[in-house]
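#structure-requests
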Amino acid sequence: MRHRQYNYKCVIYGWDSLCAASQDWIQQMGVENLPKKGHQPFYNVLVEDGSTRYAAQGKTVVIGFRKLPENGEVFFYIHVTRRYLRHMWQVTSNDFV
């Protein structure tokens, strides 16, 4: 996927059928200015730089590979996803490594 406004590439790892963010975040991000406001799916996305974001469906577009990814690219996405998921598991289970 690609974000329409900020142009970053990302993959979805979770979603909410409606915006589930706090009112402060909704106001700060201008969700009420979107055509469907918070009444659309919002995706938890892993961005190509390793960060995570929360993006409205209306702000994303599906993209496809024009060629198969190189082994290094596949390894990068697996490594970043694994690192993020391991971190989330540690945070939610109160395990510290």
